[in-house]
Each structure stands twice: as structure tokens, then as C-alpha cells.
Amino acid sequence: MTSRTSRTTARATPARAVARTQTLLKGKDGIGTVRRTTLPGGLRVVTETLPSVRSATFGIWVNVGSRDETPTLNGATHYLEHLLFKGTAKRSALDISAAVDAVGGEMNAFTAKEYTCYYARVLDTDLPLAIDVVCDMLTGSLIAPEDVDAERGVILEEIAMTEDDPGDCVHDLFAHTMLGDTPLGRPVLGTVDTINALGRDQIARFYKRHYDPTRLVVAAAGNVDHARVVRQVRAAFDRAGALERTDAEPTAPRAGSRTLRANGKVEVVNRRTEQAHVILGMPGLARTDDRRWAMSVLNAALGGGMSSRLFQEVREKRGLAYSVYSYTSGFADCGLFGVYAGCRPSQVDDVLRICRDELDAVAGGGLSDDEVSRAIGQLAGSTVLGLEDTGALMNRIGKSELCWGEQMSVDDMLAKISAVTPDEVREVARDILGQRPSLSVIGPLKDKQAARLHDVVA
Amino acid sequence: MTSRTSRTTARATPARAVARTQTLLKGKDGIGTVRRTTLPGGLRVVTETLPSVRSATFGIWVNVGSRDETPTLNGATHYLEHLLFKGTAKRSALDISAAVDAVGGEMNAFTAKEYTCYYARVLDTDLPLAIDVVCDMLTGSLIAPEDVDAERGVILEEIAMTEDDPGDCVHDLFAHTMLGDTPLGRPVLGTVDTINALGRDQIARFYKRHYDPTRLVVAAAGNVDHARVVRQVRAAFDRAGALERTDAEPTAPRAGSRTLRANGKVEVVNRRTEQAHVILGMPGLARTDDRRWAMSVLNAALGGGMSSRLFQEVREKRGLAYSVYSYTSGFADCGLFGVYAGCRPSQVDDVLRICRDELDAVAGGGLSDDEVSRAIGQLAGSTVLGLEDTGALMNRIGKSELCWGEQMSVDDMLAKISAVTPDEVREVARDILGQRPSLSVIGPLKDKQAARLHDVVA
Hints:
Number of helices of chain A: 17
Oligomer: homodimer
Shape of chain A: globular
Helix content of chain A: 40-55%
CATH architecture of the largest domain in chain A: 2-Layer Sandwich
Number of domains of chain A: 2
Strand content of chain A: 15-25%
Strand order of the largest sheet of chain A: 1-2-3-7-4-6-5
Mean pLDDT of chain A: 94
């Protein structure tokens, strides 16, 4: 179904300028219907309806992240994300924030290595306002020189704040340990040096180059009407003259050819913290890898909850850490798997030995069928529980469209999760956990102790 | 309406042992109906129905917090909260966590100065399991000596982790600055010394004394049936023999007679962090103060969102901080109001001067009617948006029952918020912000700079 506006437009412009709308997922009782419209100009709009709620989350995903930065541009994607809140031809920074604050909405954005997302969660009646504000930010940002300078201070503070959170910045260190000084290995925030060196024109060029409608996915979820959302988004982008290249087609999901090999590196940053913050990890799976369902089950069983192996062995039985968990991050062509723990320096050797032993044991097939089936239940239950949050729904459909170019229903996801067999988990455990690990540590470690850490990855 | 089980019980025991059920709020179309049953034994069960969701959050609130600790017991409430996850006569620690993990639920707990809460969020079909596990933890915890020792390590790690998060622990410092070495002024986690000194028997006595059914409020929200929840809770507590004192009545909401005066103190903890983390604040309002609605509006306008005064003046216009906000915390008899900012040491003087100037300006009546009406819109919108989260609903009804002994409908809350006048905001601003502030700082400040900080509170 195309909206009335788009049909009218279609009559006045060449045939190829017709908006194309598809129902990608049918849903049940109006819940979970996912539709996509591709507007002339190559802009995609996906929505998911959840008529039982009174809220809606509206977001725009951009196919750009810190991975697209050269060394000198490191931090530009995130810097730009901040600058989009600073004003457009029509709105000052205060106008932007006041509009959403006045209706009690939440507006924010996040920048990752492969994408950037801007969103607002509001009452359904305020959705037109959210669409108007977010579309204006994306299409009409001024990037005024004085704002670039004021915001530089804010970014430098954000970098300093992250530095003060060792449990956070050890993840940046681990990316460096595994990926080195490469686009994927560099921090999303950039560094004090790159941020100080970035100029207004560099950022404005970056904006112009990457915020093309063909590289955007608009996503809305909650009590939303697809045709109305499409109409409003189209009008907003039309006003900005952003859909003029009517024959433009959306870009394909990001591809890549990075292969990642286990490197057995150890990187230690000596800092006067109370705890040592460690990540023991290795290459993981790319986002599109078929083994990702088995990997999720493995991750849940190993370090995903209070009943997981690592939580039980490190915290529950021995009281060696407060926070211990495993995680996966998948990119277009490669991925990471890691185990995080925070513990006092005197416990680091014990904690790492236990983590390494568990990785080895699980790589060797040591996960019981019980653990696998509990992990499957955990993933299935939390998937269904996640359906009530319009923010989570918007994230799923937006990211799916941008990164996979397709949508998957919850029923299909549940089927994929439930179909994972203990054998598949054993196989992916052998392939991934069986690799030589690398290690990143931030903490007050003496040289002698730091030297000993090499034994952990031997 | 009493449940069938409770009527049967009533026949077999004295008349006073009948469960009393009231509909406290009627709701609309089945949404937002709040019911309370007081069971014989003095146990309160409150529920709120939201039939449009598939989830339920079940929690138990306990009328005990760090405020109830003597100096030597400091940290016992929170230590005990951890120990309740370690096992009962029927379940090991793994049994407890595996039960909820296996269905994808989230289970956790939090300890505050005046209450403790344990909760699980699950699919509605798994609610009986959540009730069973959480009730078992509350009534049948073993507090085994070996678990006390293992968990001591975990708590010490949690303290160390908090120490590594200066933006978090500056709040503990501010409580100390304002309230000193008193029950309300001491940290919820305790200190390394008190945690190392606490013995199993002290904690077990604390458990026995404070976890009496008369001091508990059971709360459930989501797709729940009140009568069925009451039946299950009653059965679980009956099995533990916890409802035997059939004439016991619930305890009244906590009262107190602490008055708090502005003290103009400055406390600086010198630490080698990247940012200095500051709180500038003063006595606020008790939880039950009638002026709390005007205070919420004031807080939102001053430091509650991106369009707020402090965000605009400190971050948006001058780029001096990434994180800057104001907040209120209310206790039974007193409260705190504070402004937090994190910034590099070289900016501390500027940031504090701006914050102090804004506090003074607003105390002098400088908030515009526009700012007040925007803040009202913000609070109203976010209140309605919060209704979709069964966890937030459970928190509201549980805390209301424990701390106020009554429930307020969303419509009444919205009416209270909307009725706040600019004059009322001006009045509370004058009363609260017009007091002499105190200041707490964690950061790498030289003595000279630290000495200058006294000017800020002069």
C-alpha cells in the first residue's frame, strides 16, 4: 500500500519516483506487522505496529560509524552526532531539546563503529513532532563554526569521563589489542589529539558525504500508522530538498573483507584504580555468520546470566568479582568475543586462570545439555520480554534494515534459537573458544604481575 | 473480594485471620486497577493490572535500609540483600538463578537508605515461578556461614568498583557532607572495615528482626490476576510458617524526626581522576512534603533535561561539561537537593560559578513561566510514558504502599503536576535554593584550588 501523498506525487513525476511499499512481516492481530516503503530518493522507512501501547519510538539510522574514519578523522562520526543537536536553519539547540522535553519525550543518539542512530521516544500523539524534529536535525544541520568549538569541549569532557570509567574503557583497549590502529580498532570517541585537530569543514564534509538519504534508514515502532509516518517523513525530507535524486536507490548493507586472527597479545595499561579491569577474548563471528544463533546460546551459557558458568565459578563459588560476564560483538565481516571481569589486583591471577580454564573446558565440549537448554530458554524468554519496549523494537527493525537488509519475525527468531542443538554449540565453542586468547587489562598492576599475565594467553 | 483459599482458611481460624482486600484505584478498561490484600500475619499484597502486556514484574519491598544500621552494622542491609540470593532450605544459589534464567527473566534487588527491594520480571505465564522463588528467598534464606564468607569478597569488589566510578561515589560523599557520620549519612554499601568485621550471626539477627511479614510489601504489576497472586503468595509464606501471628498488622510507613540544616560545608577528596566530579547542594524536601510536586517541576526546569537551565548554560552554551544535572532525594523526614557536574579540573571554578549563579537566580524568582510550563509538560509526558513498563509500575505501587501507605492514580498524579503554579515553584525555589549550599568534590585538585572552593558556598 502506498500513501495518498506518494500516489499523488507519482502522477506528477516520472514513474520511477513512486514510493514502493511492502509488508515484510504480517504479524498477528495487528501486532508485529512490519512494513517498508522505499521513497524516491532512496530513503527507506520501516515501521512496526504495536497498537496496544500509547508510545512510539522514532529513529533514523545512518550507515556511518567510526570504521569509516581515516586516522585524522578519528572521532568525526561521534563529533558530528553531537553537532546535529546544535541547531538547524529552523531550530536552535534549545528549540530542538525544548520541543521534545516539553512533551516528556526522551531524545538521544548513539554512535558505533558501523552505524549512528538518532531517536526520540514520545507519546503516540506527539509522534509528528518527533518526526519533524529528528528529520530536521538529519537534513538541515548547520554545523556552525561556533558550535563546533563549544561542542569540542563537551567531547573532550566525554573522553575524560570515559577515561574515569575503567570498566568501560577496557573495551576500547580490547578493540585495540585485537584490531590495532585500524578503523575498527580505533575508539568511537576519537582521542584528545584528533578531537583538538578536527576542523569545522572536515566535519561538514563528512556530514554531506555520509548523510545521504540512500544511506539512511528511518524506523518507527509502537502505536504508529505506516502510511502516516511515511507521509510525514517524506514531507520533512522534501522540504529539505533531500529527495531530489528520484532515481537513487538505497545502499546495500555494509560489506567488508577484514579477517581477524587470534594474536595472543597482552596489553596492560597501568592506572591507579581500585580494581583491575580485564578482558580475555578472541576473534568472534561476523554479524551475518550462520553460526550466530549457536554463538548466542554459547555466550548466554558461558557468561550471560547469574546461572552462567563464569558467574557461578568466579563470583558465586569463590567471591572473586562483583561483575563478570561474556559478550559478543559482530561487525560486517568479523567479530569479537570477550570475557570481562573486574576484581582487585590481588585476585587477577586467580580470576584469569578460572576464566581461561572455563574457556578451555567449554571449547573442549564441556557444556552440558542442561546448560544449553537453559541458555535457549533464557534467550527465548528475553526475546519475548523485549517486545514490550518500543525503543527496542525500533532498534531491531532499524538495525535489521541497515545491517542485513531484511527483517525477521519474532517467531522466526524464536525458531532459530530453539533449533540450536548442543552439537552446534559444541562446534562453535571449539571454533571460537579454542583459539588462542588475547588479554587487555587496566589497573594498578606491578611489572612483575603484568609479566605473569602472558602465561594466561600461552 | 477475597480469594477462595483465604476464605477457606478463614473458616478454620479465628475471624480476624480473614484476608482483607480493597480496590484502591479503579482504573479504566481493566488498566491501572490497583488492589490491596492484607493477609493474616500482616503481609500486604498490592497489584496493578495492565492486561495489554505479556509480562509481569513481581517484587517484595522490605522496610529496612542502611538508615537502620548502627555504625558497626553499616553495610549489613546490603550484605544481607546479597545473601538472600545464596540459597534457602529448598534451593541452592544456582537453583535460584537458574530458575529465572531458564525462562529469560531478569531477577535483581536493590538496597537504599530506607528500603530494600527484590524483584523478578518474567513472562506472565512464568509469574508463579517468580513468586515461588522470590518468596522462598525472603522467607527461607539460610545465611550459611560459608556463603557469608564467599559473598564478603563480592561486596568488597562492589565497593572497589564503586570507588572506581567517581561520578557515582561523589553522591556518597555528598551524603556525608550533608548528613555526616549518621545512619542517613553513611554509605549503603558500608566500608571495607565494616564489611570485614561483620559476622554471620549479626547478619542473621538483622534478617530475623527486619524481614517480618508486617514489614514487607509484596507488589506485582502487569498481566496479573490479583486473587491468584494473593493465593500464591499466601501459600508460599504459609509453607514457610511466616504468617502464624494471625493478628499481626502491617507496620506504618516510616516516620522520622531528622531535621536538616544548611551547613555550608566543603569536602574535597583528592583523587587522580581525569575529571573533577562535583555536587553543589542543600537540604531538600521530605518524601511526604506537600511542596514535592512544585519541587519536581523546579528540578526538571533547573536540571532535568537537555533544555534545562543548567544543561543550556554549562554544556550547550559553553561546552564546559558532558554531564550536568540536578536531582532530589526524599527521605521520611528530610531530603537533599543537588546539582552534579563532571568536568576537567581546569573548568571547575567556571562550572561551579555558573551553577551557583543559576541557583541564586532561580531562588530569586528567575524561572520564566515558559520554563515552568515546559517542565510540567516534561513530567506529565514522562509519567505517561512510564506506564508501559511493568517494572516501573511495580516499583511505584510497592514503594507507595511501603513509604506512603497509600496509592495515587496516574490521573491524580497528572492533576497534581498540572496544578503546580509558577508562584508555587518560585516559593519552593526561594525556600530550597535560597539556602546556603554545601559542596562535595572528588578529583585531582591542588590545595590552592580546593581552598578557593569555599568561595562558591560563601
